[in-house]
Design brief:
- There is one protein chain.
- With about 180 residues, the protein is an alpha+beta fold.
- It has one domain (about 5-175).
- About 35% of the residues lie in helices and about 10% in strands.
- A three-stranded mixed sheet has the order 5-4-6. The protein has a two-stranded antiparallel sheet with strand order 1-7. A two-stranded antiparallel ribbon has the order 2-3.
Length: about 180
Amino acid sequence: MTIPAKSFFNSYNQLNKDIDALSLSLEKTHAKHINCKMGCDLCCMAISVFPVEFHAIKTELEKSEMTILPKPKDPSRCRFLVDHSCTIYEHRPVICRTHGLPLVYMSMDTDEYELSLCELNFTEFDFEEFDEENTFPLDKINSRLYQINKQFVAGFEGGRYSEQDRISLSDLMGE
């Protein structure tokens, strides 16, 4: 690394803290409508992440000397899901921190806001009751993440990555 990555990881970690705080608040607000619990892994898919996320998570995993996990039989499943439990939960990416919550984002097709949520949650909820106060502003979070990543890639190993690059999370295993 040619830049002090720690400063970017600090920004990334602060973003995660902010996401976790908002998520906790929304989980309390919607407690009777959220069915997410230990063992539920419907949303645990193979994903790719921005370079800043990849390297921040990698740095944390290297500290813990995580053992190599086998590739899942189903390549669409997350490699870090073992016995219906996330083995990197404390260091999971931004997208994983928001699953299950009511997410609001701008549609790329219609320029209108759309709502996304897990099919197991909010089965008996009047969707007209969602508003700015009880939904997760996904665009704002993604914008912050994008800006942190943009600064990170600008100085990382002489331009090794572009700001649009994504890295498979399973590549953390180095295979």
